[in-house]
Structure formats: structure tokens, C-alpha cells
Amino acid sequence: MKTLEFKSLEYPHKMGQRCADLEPNILEDTLFIEDGKPLGFYIKEPPIKLKQLLNIANAELNSPNVPKVKMDRGTRKMNAARGIDVVQQYSATLGACVPRAHMKRDYGRTSQLHSVASARTFIKAMLMACKEGEKLLKDIMPEQYELQKKLIEENVPEKYRLTDLFSSSISNFNIAAAYHQDRGNLKGCVNFIFSKKENARGGHLHVPEYDAVIDNKDCSMLVYPAYKNMHGVTPIIPLAENGYRNSLVFYAIDNLQKFF
């Protein structure tokens, strides 16, 4: 695994702006360093067991077994008039969910997907894949592993823990997020971003502050602190009728302790 030093740069991109169709400049296994300390890493070809689990989770996500929330943006007529290709978008969540700000009383909530019998294979494969990813984190960034475990123990009540290192997960189908910053994430924690991709291009993570465009190869694994700075996803462009890009993401939500 090679090492890449990240240095902050000025950039013109704005929050909410859509990413351009950029080509990746990080294509191989890479450990990201900032100020002399590991920040995250990218693995192009993870171990076979992890790949097998991701394939199972992805197949279940793409099936009717897993209820999804549709994420279509605007109507087909509106998008067509604006010259935007219409692709189906949806997502599925696991673990703790962001509390609803509009509710009159504060309380935490967990994904209803855990009560869906047909989704059990998906949930099991996702949790097992995350555990395999945690082994890689412990091996590559042991200090981050111990820090994140401690942060979860101190800030996330046991009832809201999805694993030892995460409270939550979201699986996105064909969603190319505009530039944003995950300010609701627990500070000090990294995200796991697993990718599944078929007959499609794009879907790379762009971090303007570092001029980093990280490849989105099928079954790749990206570890990154999404709370830290602005980032977005380049357009996902199907190359065939069945083309898609899925991201299977694990993260830790901040402020869950007040719902204990």
C-alpha cells in the first residue's frame, strides 16, 4: 500500500453544487496521511471473504427482499426538459437513525428494516462485511481503531450501536451526492464506504480540499472521516440498461447519548 500526503488547497466548489464528471487520480491501494498522521485509506481489491459478503449484501439490496426508500429527484418530465438523465435512486438504512428535529419530544430511533424478515440475509451480510472491514482498520490504522471503539463506547448508548465502531449504515443505489459535509457524524470517527458497480462509470468520491478523486472500483473499500471536510460524488453514468453503482456505507451518529 502506497502512502499519499494530503495537503489543504484552495478550491472554488460550493456546498450543494453538483460534482463534475471527474476522472479518479487515486486508483491503487493508498494510505492517506495528513500532518504526519493516518487519515484514511483506499483498498482496490479487499480480501476474498469481504468481497463475497459484499456480493451477497448487494444482491439482496437489489432484490425485493429489502424495502427501500425511493430517492427520485423531480419528475421525469422536469429532468428531461433540463437535459438530465433519469436514473432510479433509492436507499436502505440500518441501525440508529438521525432523530427527527420536528418532533415535539426528543427520542432516538432505529431503522424499521431490522423488523423485516425478508431482509435478514441482507442485514447479516452487511454486519459480517463491516466486521471484516474493522479487521482491516485495526491492521492498517490501529490507533484509529482503538480511538473509534472508545468514542463509540463513550458517546453511543449500547442500544444504538450497530457494531463496535458504528451506529448506523445506509446503502445507496445510483445516488451521486452533491458537495456536502457530514456534520452530524461523531467527530473523530471514520466512515466505511464499500462500492458495488456494474456496467457503469463514475461515482468517485471527490474531496476538493485535497484535490483527491478516489476511484470507485467494484468491491473497493474506502475509509474516510466524512465529518472532516466537504466532499461529493461524481455523476454515475450507466453504460447499459442494467448499469448501476451502489455504495454500502457505515458511519457513527453524534449526540445519540441524549436519547438514552
Q: Give the uncertain stretches in residue-range form.
A: 72-80, 82-87, 102-107
The main β sheet shows up as: 10 strands, mixed
The CATH architecture designation is: 4-Layer Sandwich
CATH class descriptor name:
Alpha Beta
Write the element-wise H/E pattern from the N-terminal end onward. EEEHEHEEHHEEEEEEEEE
Radius of gyration: 18 Å
Strand elements, count: 15
At CATH level 3, the topology is Double-stranded beta-helix
How many distinct helices?
A: 4
Global shape: globular
Percent helix range? 10-25%
Average pLDDT figure: 90
Describe the 3D structure.
It is built from 4 helices and 15 strands. By secondary structure, the protein is an alpha+beta fold. It has a single domain, classed as 4-Layer Sandwich (Double-stranded beta-helix), CATH 3.60.130. The strands form 3 sheets. Strands 1, 2, 3, 4, 5, 6, 7, 8, 12 and 15 form a 10-stranded mixed sheet that branches. Strands 11-10-13 form a 3-stranded antiparallel sheet, with no helix packed on it. It has a two-stranded antiparallel sheet with strand order 9-14. A hairpin with a 2-residue loop joins strand 2 and strand 3 (37-43). Helix 1 runs antiparallel to helix 3 (120-140) and helix 3 crosses helix 4 (142-155). The protein is globular and about 45 Å long. Residues 72-80, 82-87 and 102-107 have low confidence and may be disordered.
